[in-house]
Write a structure and sequence with these properties.
Shape: globular
Strand content: 5-15%
Radius of gyration: 17 Å
Low-confidence stretches: none
Number of helices: 10
Structural class: alpha/beta
Mean pLDDT: 88
Helix content: 40-55%
Strand order of the largest sheet: 2-1-3-4-5-6
Order of helices and strands: EHEHEHEHEHEHHHHH
Largest sheet: 6 strands, parallel
């Protein structure tokens, strides 16, 4: 990268106040090329804007940040992604890193930490907030990802359907959004319930909230 060209950042966060604060934080060193508010828009913007790095929230509407990253990687896009999140649970950090994240920073950390994470990611390194580093390393030593994270037992498509159901979308709406039939949506819903041993829509919603797929 030429020294004269500032790194181009795509920001994905559905909280506008957070997004505005991040704009001010990043402006001195980076060029903000776009701001999106959900995971689907993130995937689309990454393809059109070609940023040098993405800073994303984990929990966003329509498609959460981690599954958006999975979709980017499946499409061959290797742009570094740094997650900035309120979720202090080690399972979120583990899930993000396993999906290919280059950084995981907590929103209540010092602003300078995010800048450090972005710089590290642009150098091809992985940055993990010191507040979680010990726990994450410990979890990785204990065994393969998924042992303590039931979300890992679901396929990306199942997680997508679960998130949209928990957001209150009907099977018909989900089918239209995903380009599949309503019958296929119901099949995925059945599989999710079987895998997670859940029995009602309320239980599905509670699970999705508890595990960071949607917000209250």
């Amino acid at each position: 990268m030429s020294p004269a060209r500032r790194p181009r950042v795509l920001l994905a966060d559905d909280h506008r106040l957070v997004a505005e604060a991040l704009k001010s934080l990043l402006a001195p060193e980076f060029d903000l090329v776009g701001v999106v508010e959900d995971g689907r828009a993130l995937v689309e913007a990454a393809g059109t804007l070609k940023p040098d790095i993405i800073v994303a929230d984990v929990t966003m509407p329509h498609l959460n940040g981690i599954d958006a990253l999975v979709r980017l990687r499946q499409g061959g896009d290797q742009v570094p992604v740094v997650f900035l999140t309120m979720h202090r649970d080690v399972t979120f950090a583990r899930r993000a890193l396993d999906a290919g994240a280059s950084g995981f920073v907590l929103k209540h950390s010092a602003p300078a930490e995010l800048v450090s994470a972005i710089r590290a990611a642009l150098e091809g390194k992985t940055y993990l907030t010191p507040q979680l580093a010990g726990e994450v390393l410990g979890a990785m030593k204990e065994g393969p990802e998924g042992a303590g994270d039931p979300v890992a037992a679901l396929t990306p498509r199942q997680r997508e359907v679960l998130q949209l159901l928990a957001e209150g979308r009907s099977a018909k709406e989900i089918a239209s959004r995903l380009g599949i039939s309503a019958r296929t949506v119901e099949f995925h819903k059945y599989q999710v319930m079987e895998t997670l041993n859940l029995h009602t829509n309320a239980e599905l919603t509670h699970f999705a909230i508890k595990h960071g797929l949607v917000e209250l």
